[in-house]
Amino acid sequence: xxxxxxxxxxxxxxxxxxxxxxxxxxxxxxxxxxxxxxxxxxxxxxxxxxxxxxxxxxxxxxxxxxxxxxxxxxxxxxxxxxxxxxxxxxxxxxxxxxxxxxxxxxxxxxxxxxxxxxxxxxxxxxxxxxxxxxxxxxxxxxxxxxxxxxxxxxxxxxxxxxxxxxxxxxxxxxxxxxxxxxxxxxxxxxxxxxxxxxxxxxxxxxxxxxxxxxxxxxxxxxxxxxxxxxxxxxxxxxxxxxxxxxxxxxxxxxxxxxxxxxxxxxxxxxxxxxxxxxxxxxxxxxxxxxxxxxxxxxxxxxxxxxxxxxxxxxxxxxxxxxxxxxxxxxxxxxxxxxxxxxxxxxxxxxxxxxxxxxxxxx
Amino acid sequence: xxxxxxxxxxxxxxxxxxxxxxxxxxxxxxxxxxxxxxxxxxxxxxxxxxxxxxxxxxxxxxxxxxxxxxxxxxxxxxxxxxxxxxxxxxxxxxxxxxxxxxxxxxxxxxxxxxxxxxxxxxxxxxxxxxxxxxxxxxxxxxxxxxxxxxxxxxxxxxxxxxxxxxxxxxxxxxxxxxxxxxxxxxxxxxxxxxxxxxxxxxxxxxxxxxxxxxxxxxxxxxxxxxxxxxxxxxxxxxxxxxxxxxxxxxxxxxxxxxxxxxxxxxxxxxxxxxxxxxxxxxxxxxxxxxxxxxxxxxxxxxxxxxxxxxxxxxxxxxxxxxxxxxxxxxxxxxxxxxxxxxxxxxxxxxxxxxxxxxxxxx
Amino acid sequence: xxxxxxxxxxxxxxxxxxxxxxxxxxxxxxxxxxxxxxxxxxxxxxxxxxxxxxxxxxxxxxxxxxxxxxxxxxxxxxxxxxxxxxxxxxxxxxxxxxxxxxxxxxxxxxxxxxxxxxxxxxxxxxxxxxxxxxxxxxxxxxxxxxxxxxxxxxxxxxxxxxxxxxxxxxxxxxxxxxxxxxxxxxxxxxxxxxxxxxxxxxxxxxxxxxxxxxxxxxxxxxxxxxxxxxxxxxxxxxxxxxxxxxxxxxxxxxxxxxxxxxxxxxxxxxxxxxxxxxxxxxxxxxxxxxxxxxxxxxxxxxxxxxxxxxxxxxxxxxxxxxxxxxxxxxxxxxxxxxxxxxxxxxxxxxxxxxxxxxxxxx
Amino acid sequence: xxxxxxxxxxxxxxxxxxxxxxxxxxxxxxxxxxxxxxxxxxxxxxxxxxxxxxxxxxxxxxxxxxxxxxxxxxxxxxxxxxxxxxxxxxxxxxxxxxxxxxxxxxxxxxxxxxxxxxxxxxxxxxxxxxxxxxxxxxxxxxxxxxxxxxxxxxxxxxxxxxxxxxxxxxxxxxxxxxxxxxxxxxxxxxxxxxxxxxxxxxxxxxxxxxxxxxxxxxxxxxxxxxxxxxxxxxxxxxxxxxxxxxxxxxxxxxxxxxxxxxxxxxxxxxxxxxxxxxxxxxxxxxxxxxxxxxxxxxxxxxxxxxxxxxxxxxxxxxxxxxxxxxxxxxxxxxxxxxxxxxxxxxxxxxxxxxxxxxxxxx
Lengths: 362, 362, 362, 362
Prior knowledge:
The structure is a homotetramer.
Chain A: E1 6-11, H1 16-25, E2 31-38, H2 47-50, H3 70-73, E3 77-79, E4 90-93, H4 97-110, E5 112-115, H5 140-148, E6 153-156, H6 160-175, E7 178-187, H7 198-201, E8 205-206, H8 212-223, E9 226-228, E10 231-233, E11 238-246, E12 252-260, H9 266-275, H10 278-281, E13 293-295, H11 304-307, E14 316-324, E15 330-337, H12 345-357
Parallel strand pairs in A: 1-2, 1-4, 2-3, 4-5, 5-6, 7-11, 13-14
Antiparallel strand pairs in A: 7-12, 8-11, 9-10, 12-15, 14-15
Helix pairs in contact in A: 1-12, 6-8
């Protein structure tokens, strides 16, 4: 007989990030959706009503390649501000920044909470987690619960742009040390949600994404940081990020030039990437990629349209590994990461799977 | 009474580069098209016939925003290998690499020749010219003609990706010195010509353009080089280029991180860009931009779709100037340059206008 | 000495439709912008401030190929609800439906008003005008002013999708009679304004545009209607419209199958299109196209990207004229019309030019 | 113990259509790939070599969402003109028209052959087959083999644009009779293969596809035809098709206005579509859709990007069913069909599955 599934709540269920969590939870072996919540406007409606425009009958569902899970359509959406968490063993908070700042501590006081939002990412006792990269940061949780007097806890996931980048940097840092990097991103539309007007991005590139570069710089250093005295000490590497938006639906492409502490040949870098994270992937968690990093030798790859969905959208695809003539001990490569899978809802579900595996959930 | 116009020949007239020259020559005050040439397949046909598919009646004209010049439609296309240059005062050679290697010296032996092709760009006695940037390299021509016993001469234009980059680097180098740079490009489709299949680039980014990065690195150093002993000595700056193709029709977007010899504030860099090339633009040549570099303060600019056609497609649009935390005395910016205007046919016509102005043409 | 220019007001100046009017009025020989108005939120700001996001500095200007007219940047935006029209000889109302319903009668009571909005289009004493197509409908204005006791008057422009269609139908109807038509549209993004999310339309087609098909059907019949007893009697033709949105920035492409009263060969149809409206175009109004309809014989044309800007975006480009085997006396063709030029702000300015020419303005 | 798999040959394996067959055969329960063939240029190479550009290492694989099947990479590609068919029980011919005309009869003389190419589609004794639509046309094969003295036989699949259309028309014809239709298509890029240049279609619509409209008109009538005297008598319905290319990667969207023999309400049409083909889908063939037609009630659907992959790309998605005011007993709807799944290689594999089920293969 299989173990009973853990009841979970999904907050922000009608938004893009929340829908990605719902899709990642469809037919999940360990979790079952016990509660949905969203803003007051949706409260009291069925999920199906809440995502359907009343006049036209148009349904707002944003996860490509699938419709809303059938089981979810009939669930009643609750008001995120009034949500009781009775019987809920885990909260996925996929809400806007302002609401997250206020509501996440309320959830975390009562139940384990995984957030895809920004406000608490940089707090020193809150793990900024990428499964397979910095799981040791979960040691912060004991201190966090004690200091904040929470029954639950709060784990945050990084910005989707930082995620794929940090996966590759961690692999390099472990073996060669990373001193500095220049990264230019070409980010997919879905990362901007529905706010990005077609009129702005079709047949175009937008050279600026508000606050994105700062986040990439800050979050990368925290993810790669080490624990000391119950908090994370940021990694000292220097980061220069230029973040642009491209006319690609999903998948962030990033061109990286990195300075290493020790010299590394392109073959050594490729091998390091391929070996990275095998301890974690060997756990075989349901949403886990088979490889944390997939290395391409065809110079035409990775491409966001062809490679974003590789390994369930959970691997970071890397190619064009070659020396960088400008950076000290320099190496260059491009990567593609799926901003809406590993970099969002499905990454949150993978984090939950690890938390369960490691005994953090009940 | 106005001076008679100089008769010019356009070689490769049916291809994309050649058509851009034709468009740039429409109603030109100083030049008139006296001869068209292309491959043997088109020879003997009118230009209109040569660009029209016989069965379907579909016409192959590649310059956006305009049709073929009416005067050109009825001209007879000659065989580029058999072209007589009687009475022709200037040749625009806009042909494929292999043909250029063989034919351009034959043209240059008889007439001044401006080439948009690659093969002779790196020869030490052949100027690799960007009008307004390195016009002093034309001093090579005297030596070139003498050594090669040519009645004419050969001037080449750079790769379209190097063009906009070199314009900005020259401005920086004059005032602050440039030591090194990391550049990531997001290049427009028209730079690839008709070979790029829609199936490959729609809703996608291709992380590799064959031989492009090497050219950007080589050509940038030559354009910024100094004359010494009748040849160009390459500039010693180090260049790390990553060249990608984006789903943008025209306009190359480039994210640059540069290390300078002397520190420069963002305001000083902006001011340096705005002042650059005013001696050249003051000549008021017909195809000249009003400004070599247009600086944007709106962080959302430059965008290729909005800015590629600025100033007739001849200015380099720059924005997001800010310090680079990784490069020594580092500065970062993005630029947009029109690969098919300044970076191709219209740049060739501007070069011709300067050659005429400076007395190099008859 | 040239005549003094007529002072005009542009309402809805910060929106897409209003900006198109502003662009069409730049350096206009007969009109000068005397007042700008928009919603309360923009009131009191300079136009430049009103279109610039305060935090990021991003400027919201939607007309492709040009920036905001320099003269307009410093003008103060007034509140559309409190606008005095002292000294204003003409109002361009380019506002949302709800506001238009309320405010346009207030403007029309005081000054000649041209509206691009929907609410008053179907009122029997309000002309639904396409310059060059149904100018005789202006005879309604005398009756309108009398009945409504207005000092000014109200003229409306049709939906952008109906515009190009009605131009071609009017040409056919005059000579052959039009009984019925089936039309499928593939409409450009700019017709939807900024509400259309990139996530919905990139690499996609949306098969539905709310209320668009009904408008095309209604408005076409009114535009082609005849005057009788001081009002417009709709044309009896039957219209079946299917309106879709395509991933094209601007330009509506429409595939038309029409049943005619009298048989017509494809050559006769082409000739009829080419001759249409020459009486109007001969007036040489500043924003007028040279031809109302431009006929293509290349089967690959018209294409929205290549042909939308033809003749200043004011001509309707038609191609692939051929018999229709299903419709009685059937003819098929495709057309491309620029939804944001002839079908919007520039069409409104052309209407104003005709009103001035015909003595309706002061 | 499971039955041994039938050895099959795939001709044209390096092309787009052939690769789609290979993808549809991956891990197939009934068929195994015994031979690959292509043009002389690829002969003797492994499949992996044959699809890899020698200089750059770029691999040409065109099926989205998957790489080449691992088992196929090492197979040797044979010359399609010299292919022995020893031991091969079925040939998939996915080759260019000219080669198909010559080679398909040679294959069919020796083995059952399913072709995706055009040349033999309109021959009266060759079935033009859509599984689930006109399987009774397979009765032609007995006559075909006798008359042509073939040991095998030849079955062809329709043009991808005709496929989805014919599925819906057959459903309507069975219950209401179809007299005539006007259809406008917006076809995906992959239907054009690699010949379609990005420069032509990005941010554009092309109003013409050579020979497509004639094929849709001819093939639709044959598919819906009835058997009489050992050949197919075309259905007498009249078809007016306008075929355009849109900037969508895959999936053909078609707007249909049909005249029926008997009146039908929108609800009856929807119900008819939903019930269509249940006898066939109940067979549960491995590549079969669960429903031949999927009906959408959300007016915003079907969309090619969201619906082309529904039911394995094998269902025809229909929406916006409503009366047509112009056609007699008129009904309107839009459909999306996956040109590269049901309309190509995977449709061929489904046809093969039925042939096997019905005892036509060995």
